[in-house]
Amino acid sequence: MALLLKNAHVVDPSVELDGRVDVLVEDDKIAAVGENLSAEGAEVVDLSGKYLVPGLVDMHVHLREPGFEAKGDIESETAAAAKGGFTGVCSMPNTNPVTDNGVVVEYIKSVAAAKGHCRVYPSGAMTRGLKGEIISEMGNMVEHGCVAFTDDGHGIQGAGMLRRAMDYGQMFGKVFMSHCQDNDLVGDGQINEGAVSTRLGLLGWPAEGEELQIMRDIMIAELTGAKLHIQHISTAKGLEMVRAAKAKGLPVTCEATPHHLFLTEDAIDGTYNTCFKVNPPLRTAADAEALIAGVIDGTVDTIATDHAPHSDWEKSREFELAPFGMTGLETALGLVITNLVKTGKITFGRMVELMAIEPRKILGLDQVTIAEGSVADLTVFDADAVWTVSEDDFASHAKNSGFKGVELTGRATDVFVGGKRTLANGVVC
């Protein structure tokens, strides 16, 4: 059945569109875009007062399935994605079994097709079992639909191992996404090394433990010619390295998370709230300011959540024993609108670049545009909706958000994936 989406403010910088138009959807494609459209027999959806943009994609998400369904699963976490306004997510490979072969890739795709509320683009491990010792079955994974390679959660410690993976894997044309962590330097670090770690008596996780591997990985990418994407960048100095690599014309991109943009180490206090325990850790206010400047000037290519659901009992343990990570799919859009768009730091057009256009470009996915013939993956949001983050409202199986109790402005209301509604008036379909 055709859908006629009326009166939305459509923003898509890729086709220089920023104004009120109607969008006609037939089957899974956009059939027409223009003013005062009509279509006999179409279901009319009035989107007055709302924005319509190309469907958002989060290129760094932990779905936990297979193997860790107590934390979350493909059904629950894609429901969280839909509620947050996302039409697609790139899943990380630290599952059990590890996503390091085509069989696991096919499993993820099949479950997502049967139970998912958004598209799932699986990434595959660079090394078998994420152990950093033997190259994974890269070609086999690509054949079955893997979109990128990463040992996320386990920075590859051996420079030679990373070179071999890049030398071999670049023939498949996929991006290498790097979790930058020098384990020998980081050790058992819990939070950013500095005044807060000293005051709270927690082991420090120095910025250099991230920056050394950013520098190394950029140099190896230059050596091999591989496409490199720095995951969850968190320090000003690390961002400068990416900026310098871009200036040299190297195929290097990076992402920043909402929690590294809008939270700092100062959020961690004597309550030892484990929702603020993330990897890499929350850094200084100066680091967060530098990342926001990078978002504005284009050094940061995309905003990705590193959505990391954990069960309540895990996050209820002592700070040193609790796992790293927080959820982010359901709060990302509101956080970006509240802190970046409403403050005038970026436009809605730049937001679309960060959260829809660039993720697809980096992952090698087909672009979605608000134009005739494009697949109808669409995100609709109310930019003025005021709401308070509450775990009682989460679609995610997990509740470990660092933004609980925060008032935000802007929220997704409707999501269409291939023309099919997966979020209707704020309710997951």
Automatic annotation (TrEMBL):
InterPro entries: DHOase, DHOase/Allantoinase_Hydrolase, DHOase_cat, Dihydroorotase_CS, Metal-dep_hydrolase_composite, Metal_Hydrolase. Belongs to the metallo-dependent hydrolases superfamily. DHOase family. Class I DHOase subfamily. The gene is pyrC. Keywords: Hydrolase, Metal-binding, Pyrimidine biosynthesis, Zinc. Zn(2+) 1 binds at H60, H62, D152, D306. Its cofactor is Zn(2+). Its EC number is 3.5.2.3. Substrate binds at H62, L63, R64, N94, N279, H310, F324, G325. Pfam families: DHOase (PF12890). One of its GO terms (molecular function) is zinc ion binding. It catalyses: (S)-dihydroorotate + H2O = N-carbamoyl-L-aspartate + H(+). It comes from Collinsella intestinalis. This is Dihydroorotase. The keyword Zinc applies. Residues 49-235 form the Dihydroorotase catalytic domain. Binds 2 Zn(2+) ions per subunit. One of its GO terms (biological process) is purine nucleobase catabolic process. Catalyzes the reversible cyclization of carbamoyl aspartate to dihydroorotate. The active site is at D306. Pathway: Pyrimidine metabolism; UMP biosynthesis via de novo pathway; (S)-dihydroorotate from bicarbonate: step 3/3.
